[in-house]
Fold this protein.
Amino acid sequence: MGAKLKAGIIGATGMVGQRFITLLDNHPDFEVTALAASSKSAGKKYSDAVSGRWAMKTNIPSYAKDMIIMDAADINAVAAKVDFVFCAVDMPKDETLKLEEAYAKTETPVVSNNSAARMIDDVPMILPEVNNAHIAVIEAQKKRLGTKKGFIAVKPNCSIQSYVPALSPLSEFGVKEIAVCTYQAISGAGKTFDTWPEMTDNLIPFIKGEEEKSEKEPLKVWGKVENGKIVNAKSPAITAQCIRVPASDGHMAAVFVKFDKKPSIDQILSIWKNFKGRPQELKLHSAPEQFITYFEEDNRPQTKLDRDLYNGMGISAGRLREDSVYDYKFICLSHNTLRGAAGGAVLIAELLKAEGFITTK
């Protein structure tokens, strides 16, 4: 094994940044050498900056406690300490995109948890088991940015990362129409029950921007690379509703799907069981051994029982059955701050390293 790549975390004090902190503790490929956040946190020890708002179930890893937080806006100083960065800032989209492109132009690859660059046609929005081939557009992006090594790669929205993995292996049957309702945990809003007591015994039938993302982002994930751009798929038609529910972690989806050529239930279950993506082929550190796990029990998957499957990186499915309007309906579940956020971004970085897109400076 070669030397570890030096990683920075931009937005290190927020909930997703905290998850990055825990996931990169003793990571075999990456060593955290820079933590950055807003100017109000800059200059503080990490443990002091997150005092009273550390939201993870485990303690702050020892490597991070005494690290001094840098100002995320001091781009050249941060870039000098790292080979690449993870970005999870809480800023307006235009400011986020400006920041990420500025880092990329210092020849620092950016693996982003943010949405600002997701729909740019030369920025790969990667669900590693599904559309790893999209990383080919990075070369065109580097030409646009005028860089040799710097680029941006992004993770899809957490709301699509339960049902898109389950539908993607079924593309040979022609996925025609999708109706989906997602039931999303409060950590997706960066909250805990302590900080958002209004969510106890409550559901909120609106999450700003989620339904638009749920209907549009899968079409980019299922698109094709043509002439240095990702051309979005024209189908399937997708309609979505997104609901905030009183769960700490875990996004569940109720999925209804119609095919051009209807498969059998046995065909679907066999495909799910046997599907492996590029991360499984490469045996990447964060990749689940089994990408999609199907539960036979009528009452599974359950958020509390199954969200941590394969360290929160596995996709759970259940209740596959024929539908009276669509061809089939089923339930899916993913861990929103692991597979859906920081964990998914770490897996993307592992893939980019394995494929030679992230290297030492």
The first strand starts at residue 5 and ends at 10. Residues 159-335 form a domain with the Dihydrodipicolinate Reductase; domain 2 fold (CATH 3.30.360.10). The chain is about 30% helix and 20% strand.
